[in-house]
Every structure is written in C-alpha cells, then in structure tokens.
Amino acid sequence: MSVGPLHPLAFAILASLATLAAPARADDDPAPPPTARELDKVTVVGEAEASRSSGATRLDLSLRETPQSVSVIDRATLEAFGLTNANQALELATGIQVESVETDRAYYTARGFDITNFQRDGLGLPMPYGLQNGDIDTAIFERIEVLRGANGLMSSTGNPSATINFIRKRPTNELQANAALTVGSWNMVRVDADVAGAIANEGAVRGRAVVAVEQGDSYLDLYSNDKQVYYGILEADLGDATMLAVGASYQRNRPEGVLWGALPLFYGDGTPTDYDVSTSTATDWSHWDTDDMDAFVELQHDFGNEWQAKASFNYEETEELTELFYVYGTPDRETGLGLFSYPSAYDSVFRAHFADVYASGPLTLFGRKHDVVAGFNWARGNNVEHSQYSDDLGTPLPPLEQGYAHYPKPAWNAISAGSDFDYARESLYATVRWNLSDSVKLITGASRTHAETTGDSYGESNTSDDTKTTPFAGLVIDLAPNYSLYGSYGEIFNPQSELDVDHRLVGPLTGSNAEIGMKGEWRDGAVNATVAVFRTRQDNLAESAGFDLDTGTSYYQGIDAESRGIELDMAGRLTDRWRVAGGITHLRVEDDAGQDTRTYVPRDTFRLSTTYDLAQVEGLMLGASLRWQSAIHREAVAFDLLGNATPTRIEQDAYAVLGLMARYEFADRWSATLNLDNATDEKYLPSLYWEQGYYAAPRNVALTIAYRFQ
C-alpha cells in the first residue's frame, strides 16, 4: 500500500503516541462492513450509533434486540453537563451508585452489588479489590455503555451487577477539530483539544489525537489536583478488506491533600457528627500519585459473505505512589478526643495484558439465517503492593475541628508489608442468535473460563484456581415494529482475592441474573426505552467485616444475598430539539434469612438529564440534571473514652442533587456553556459504604468556551 504526503494531523497524532509505549486494542462493536475503510468508521456520533451495543454477546445488536438492560451515556451528554470524569458520568446512569469513599478511590454498585468490571472497548480484568483508584477522564471516550446484570459470556469473571464499557474515540475521514477552555469554582482550569481526520492516501490512513489538562483546588481543605490526559490512534486500510488500528493513552494524576479514609460519622455516645462540608483529615504532605497507561492494537478482516474476524491486544499499566494519613477512632462529643493517627506510605504497580480473537457471521440452518460468534479471550495480570509504616501509629490526635494539616511527616522506617499477585484467565466463548421466525429471536451462548490467582498478600498465601462454564440465554419477541418482549438468564463467577479474619481466602463468588422486560424503539432508533424486572443473586460475596490494625488491612466474610427489583430506562431525542435520558430503579437486597443487607445501597433511585434547543433564540440550549436517592443507613458500634460500647446507626436521609446548564453559540463555531452543579447547595454524604465518609461538593459553577474548527 502506498502512502501519500503526510497531513499535518499526522504529526500531532504521532507526537501523542511517542509519549506513550506498547501496542494494543480497540473497538469491539463494528457493524459488518463491505470494505476495510468502513470498519468502525466514525464521523459524527448520533443516536444510531448510541443505540447499538455488542457488550453482551459480541453480536452487533440494537438496544431493542439485546435481551438485557443497557444504558448509553453519549458524547453529547458528557459535553453538555461537563462530565469530565467517569464518576460524574456514572452518577447519571440508571441504577448505578458511585460509592465515593475517599477523594481518590471509589466503589460502584448496581442492583445491590459491587461493579468490578470496567472495560475499554470490551476488554478488561476485574479491578483489584473492586476499587477504582485515581480518576478516569472522559476526554478520550466517545460514549460509555452500561450493561446491567451478569455478563459472564463476555466478561468471564466478575459480579452479576453491571459491566461498564468505555468506548474510545475513533478517527474520522473528514477533518474535524475542536478546543475548549473551562474555568470553574475553586480555581479550576481545564483545556481540551481533539483533532481527527484523514492523514494520507485519501483517507486510507486516518488518525485522532486528544489532549486534556486540568488543575485546581477543592472545596475540601488542602485538596488539589493536577491532571494530564493524552490519547492518539491511527487506523490504516491494508487493502480492501483489512484494517489495522494502533493507539495509546496516558493519564497522569497528581492530587495533594488527599483523603485516606474519611471523617468519623458518630461520637462515642452514638450520636451523629456534623462537620463543615470542607472538613478533611488530610495533611499537607499527603498525596496519591497515579499514572495510567493503556496501549492497544487491533486487526480486522472482512472475508466476504458477511463473515469477519477481529483480533485485539491491549496492555494496561497503573502505577501508584502515595504518602497517606488515616485517622481512626471515635471522638468524644464534649472534648473531640478519641481519634488516633495511622500514617502509611504505599506504592503499587498493576500490569495486565489482554487478547481477544473472534469470528462472526451468518449460518444457514433449517431454511433460516442465524448469527454466530465464536472466540477466545486471554488475560494476564500482576499486582504488586508495598506498604511502609512509621513508629508513631496510634498517636492521640487533637479534635478534628483543629485539622491535621501540619501533622509531622513520619520517617517510614518501621514495619513494612505488601502483596504480589499474578492473575491468569483464559476463556472460550460462543454465541448463536437463532432466528426462529421473523419476530422471535433466541440467543444462546456459553463461556468456559479458567481463572487462576497465585501469590501472597501481606504475609499470607493468596492462591485460587477455578474453572467454570457460565451459560447465557435470551429470548426477544417482537410484538410490533417498535416493541419487544424479552427475557434472559446469565451466570458469572469471581475467584475473589479478599481475605477473612484468619487471613485466608474467602473463596470464589458465584452469581446469576434473570430478568424479563419490554423494550421500545422510536424515531429510527433515536429513542429507546426499557422496563425490566430482575432477580440477581450472589453467593459467598466477600463483605467487609472489619479492619486489622496489626496488618493494616481489611478482612471479609462470605455472605449470600439476593436482590429483586424493577428498572425503567429511557434515552434519546424525543424531538429534533429535545433530548432526554434517565431512569428509575426500585430494589430490595436480602440475605438468605430474608433480612435486609447492604443497607448502604439506596433502594430507590431516580436519574434524569435533559436538554432543549430553544426555537425562540437560535443557538441557545438549556438543560437540567437531577439525581435522587432514598435514605440509606448502616449499623455500627460507638466506643467512648472509657471503652463502653453503644450500638448506633449511621444514616443519610433521602436527597436530590440538581444541575443546570446553558449553552449559547454566540458566533460562528464558537460556543459558551455554563454548568451549575448542586444548584440547591445540598449537604449530603455520597456513600455509607464504610463507617467513615465525607461530604460531597457544595454548589459550584464552571464556564466552558469552545471552538470547532470544522
């Protein structure tokens, strides 16, 4: 293949790639194309693209054809509401709960259980310990797909809660570029740039480069962050039916004044604390540096006769370097005494390789054409952690109201501990979509997975070896051109690395999800709605049971639990000017005795985001977002200064968070977007996942000035 003169865009993309390293993967949901140049081609992301997903089966299906609950957070929503990180975006997703336990760590739940599977273009390993450390910036993603329920067919291991799939931006044939400057509360400044287009040979070589830089302070005392994001991708047509893509991304986070743990939520007499929203237990030397690098390569080939194959390889590496200050104990209501220090220096490196190869196409049997996917998935990962401590563990602290900014930075010369785990996973999977009639489709599939963990965790062996077949079945019945009934059942398992109080593995988790529902699709796929009734079960779920001060680690116990509920989700462009996305979730989570469990998960949630282009003022868009959840609580025990125990309940009342936005195109290609978050200045705790917590951001504002070059 000959390549003509390089477009200036090539230098921008090659410069981005040069700052990274290693090859790797890309998008797993292309429509079957006749030529390589049309494979995964993206021009303008619209409702047609946002209304399709392959995350459940590798089949390229519309949302109405997919027999599971799926939500899509598209690029338009991310930009309209200034959702620059994954936590902000997922807070608007139906049924998703972002458990912000610290400034730089979070858990996630859906249908009552933890979400452990974050993927990029359909590939990934479950997150170590189910935690996302650091920040995931949304600048490099075209959309975020949320598949609720068990995804054992494509994720192999994990929980039957949800899978979050981040779909990367892709090159375009036509030149398009934009840049934006955002300024906001607490000295926040952000710059974004995105350029894509043909580079050589009349579009046979295409590319895209994305850069985002952000820095600012916070409403929390001492906290600040400095973030940089770089992404580059090149696509090349290697003939009429083959396409090669290679790309990489790098994100650098440098937060200071970070929380490790959070505020005590009750006094020694069991009554609740009530601090200022800005209160923090951080010191002026605490920091949590993270460096995340992803690199990928993929090769696609169209064999003709509607058959194609795709091979993807991905490499991920996350490095963390921290110095942290944890505060434990229960303060006395009168004196504020009863809190103690627990500083630590912690560093870790997580590396993972993923590979996926599959073929898809039609198969004719019994006079009808059916759709087939068969593939192999391979993954290897390693997680190394090292914790160092000083000899001032347990130092009595003054009342929290005085702050710990100037607590002396210790010398990390006392005890040390750590872990070193290797992960291995191989899966064979196959899916068939049986076209039983023009209106009835049956999807059957299975994944045979071997998952192995070897290594040590803080002085204890951490070894597991499990092999399991996870089935999937789904039925979709078209009732009318715009309506379908569906039902599905899927299983999943997770080897689990959590340890019990005796420092032994809790053992593998097994889970399943069954749901039935109805889906609707209108305006040629521009509007999609789902109502689903589900039953999700987890057996031997590793639930936090305490904290061991001698080893500095949490310990867990295995519990069985089941959630049952109903979800309503809708998204799309109701008219040419009006866009709406949102949903309602109602659920119950019970243990095998029929008692409520995981009570920190809200039983009722409501999510809504909407924008409207005013006809009366050309170029003006107004919008609003609303997050509401019911009350949550967790049981705890308070200890006074004499060691007397008092049972208590930590509570967070029901609350709503309102966001407002306005965008005005004030000149050709120029726009200004104003976002007002938490407009009513609601004071609330975003999570009771732990017995500590901190307050969410109060009212804040951001203004973005953007320019589109094409």
UniProtKB/TrEMBL annotation:
Signal peptide interval: 1-26
Coiled coil region boundaries: none
Membrane topology: Multi-pass membrane protein
Domain TonB-dependent receptor-like beta-barrel: 249-678
Domain named TonB-dependent receptor plug: residues: 63-161
InterPro entries: Beta-barrel_TonB (IPR000531), Beta-barrel_TonB_sf (IPR036942), Plug_dom (IPR012910), Plug_dom_sf (IPR037066), TonB-dep_rcpt-like (IPR039426), TonB_sidphr_rcpt (IPR010105)
Protein location: Cell outer membrane
Keywords of the record: Cell outer membrane, Membrane, Receptor, Signal, TonB box, Transmembrane, Transmembrane beta strand, Transport
Key word Transmembrane present: yes
Recorded family membership: Belongs to the TonB-dependent receptor family.
Protein name: TonB-dependent siderophore receptor
Originating organism: Noviluteimonas lactosilytica
